[in-house]
Amino acid sequence: MRQREHVLVLSPNGQMPDSLGQILKQLDLDSRLFDPLDVSQIEADADPLAAVLALEAWEGLDSAWVRKVTSELTELEVNTLLLRKECGGDVDSELTAEQMCGGVQGESVEMLKGRLMTLKEMRPAFKQMQSELEMLRQMQKPLNQHFTDVSEEMHLASRLQQDFLPRRIPEVPGLRFATVYRPASWVSGDIYDIIRLDEKHVGFYVADAVGHGMPAALLTMFIKTAMITKKIKGKSYTIVEPGDAIAQLNNEMVEQNLSNNQFVTCCYGIINTETWELRMASAGHPFPMHIDKHSQARELDVSGKLLGVFSDLEYETFRYQLAPGDKLLTYSDGVEMAFENAGPDQELRFRAEFGNLADCSAEAMCQKLVEIIDREEGSLHPRDDVTIVAMEISERQ
Predict the structure, then answer these.
(1) Is 0.85 topped by the overall pTM?
(2) Which domains does the chain have, with CATH numbers?
(3) Pairing mode, strands 318-321 and 297-299
C-alpha cells in the first residue's frame, strides 16, 4: 500500500487548526504535529511534503522568532508555509494587517491550499530531479579524480618535454641567441635545439610536428633523438651538412611508418663562427628572416619538402654570407598564426612586426614579440605553438 504524503504542522498548543485540518483532508495528506520550540526534532522526520507554521494558534506572536524558525527549517531543506493568523476586534484603521498580526502576515487558507496542492503535484518531478542529481554527484567523484590524474600526467609530460630542450645556450664570442617557446596547451608540437658542434661551428634548428597536443609532442621527442648533426668515428668526427641531416631525419621518419599522417617541418642551420658563413636546409618550414646591420629585413628562400612523406628525398644546403650586426630569426608557423591579419589579400602581419623591431637586439626582439602576441585577440587560447630561435652576430671584443 502506497504511503500517503504528509505535512508537518508546528502548533504551540499541540492542536490542529480546524482550517488546516480541512485542507489536509481535502488533499488526502497526513499530518504530524510538532512543537515549534524544538525544530531540531524535525531532522529525524522522513521527507515531509512541507512544514506549516499555524500562526493562528499562536498568542503574543514574535515576528523575529518566527523568522528564526523558518530559517532553521530552510536549512533543513523543508518547504515552509505560514498559515495566516486571523486578526479580529476593534483596531486602529491606520494600522496595517501585518502590524496588527505581530509583524508576520502569512497566507490565507485558500492560498495555503493552492501551494500544498502544487507541491503535491510536483513532488514526483522533484523526486526524479533529486535522484538524477544524486546520481550525477556519484558520477562526479570518479570524474574529478580522473581529471586530476590527467592534469598531473599532462604536467609531468610538459616537464619531460622541457627536459628535451637545451638547458644552456652555448656561449660563443660574437654570437648571441635568444628563444621563445610557448606551447598552445600543456605540451608542444614544436622543438628546437642549439648545439655547439665544435670550436667554430654552432648548429641550430626549429622543427614543427603538424598539429599540437600529445601526439605532436611525442613526435618531437623522436625528432630530438633522430636528428644527427655530427658523426663520430674513433677520435675523429664529421659535421653533417644541413641538407644531409634533414634527408636522414626524413628517412628515419618514413621507416617508422607513422599512423595518422604525422608530418614534420624543419629548418636547420650551421653558422661558422670564424667566417660567419651560414649553411641552411629546410623541409616545408617557414622561411627564416634575415635582418642586416642596416635593419633591412628579408626572408631567405630556403625550401624543401615535408618530412615523413616520401623516402630518399634530397635536401639542398643553401649558403649565405652573414656579417657582424646581422640577425636571423628561425620560427615555427605558429608565429604567423599568432598575429591577427587585416585580410587574405594583405601581407602577413608578422613580417611587418619583424621589420618594426629590426633595430632591437635579438633578445629584445623576442621579448617585444611576446608582448605583442599577448595583446592579440584570442591570445589566451592560442591556435598553435609558438617557437622562435633568434641569432645575432655582434662585434668581437
Answers:
(1) no
(2) 6-131 (3.40.50), 164-393 (3.60.40.10)
(3) unpaired
